[in-house]
């Protein structure tokens, strides 16, 4: 790391029933970030060209990270049942044997009943991941007065734009979040621009998200998780705030330092105050900042680069505001002074929640997430936030 055709609805549910889908999204996010970080450090290469290298582990992270995303897209292309059956029989037929990509492709084509050369070539012979964005999006309520067949539901329609000629996506999923839950539908993407329309039901639609649970895209966001720094502890530093609650922030920094040292690597991260830390310190390291914007001037300086909004003793993430003094948050962003390093912020909404935050962070911080919400009296929530180009807020009255 150092120098369009609509498919059947996939889901129509409240957030509580999305646990399986959300878990899959976190797993895919983990493989995606692993691939992107290795490609950034080592230089990207097509899967077909990867070779074993005893001097580096990055080749494996590229192969395993992008390889999992490729298999996920093949699964979406073939359908779950067909894909799982094919993988089972392929494994049984070739157990203990050396195989190559051409053999696997032939087996997949036989199971799918159609040629898959273009799909395989795009994933095995090209670098990078697909790049998509949402075009114009609108929401209209059908009225029976204007259309006898109308049912009075909201219809969300828009355009999906492909921005590259990279790997092929089998399907593109559009999720519409409404007052009553969410609806996800899959669409074919057979051209650079494709339209979509989703019947959102009677509840008002609030937001549209492209590939909310897919994560096989190259986006304009960073490739880090809250725990990415664990792999490079020799290039990491803890900086605590002195503007407010200085003693608590320092104790939290020391607790975090001790917890990281005892977590397995037996490495002691340096600790500095925000007054003593220099730009050179931040340029050379993954940075773990302790404190809110009102107590840590580095958090205040970089607050516009963070994936959440800090208010006065509150924070807002994914449209939800947390203001209970016992709540805390851990989040990751790209280090504004060195894109090859991450910036982690760990902050409670009062002194006690900041003091407790390191223990909870060390318990949950290795989960693949961009934001880890530590709500007062509740369970930790690991969140993956969609890239801005994949989201449209809807103002429906």
Descriptive overview:
There is one protein chain. With 397 residues, this protein is of the alpha+beta class. It has three domains: 112 residues, Neutral Protease, domain 2 (Orthogonal Bundle); 96 residues, Sandwich (Immunoglobulin-like), CATH 2.60.40; 156 residues, Chitobiase/beta-hexosaminidase domain 2-like (Chitobiase, domain 2, 2-Layer Sandwich), CATH 3.30.379. Helices cover 31% and strands 27% of the residues. It contains nine helices and 18 strands. A seven-stranded mixed beta sheet has the order 9-8-10-15-14-16-17. Helix 1 packs across helix 2, helix 2 packs across helix 3 and helix 6 runs parallel beside helix 9. It starts with a strand and ends with a strand.
What's this model, at a glance?
This protein is an alpha+beta fold.
Index terms:
Immunoglobulin-like; 3 domains; seven-stranded mixed β-sheet; alpha+beta; 397 residues; five-stranded antiparallel β-sheet; Chitobiase, domain 2; Neutral Protease, domain 2
Fraction of residues in β-strands: 25-35%
User: What is the name of the CATH topology of the largest domain?
Assistant: Chitobiase, domain 2
CATH class of the largest domain: Alpha Beta
- Gap from first CA to last CA: 48 Å
Gyration radius over CA: 23 Å
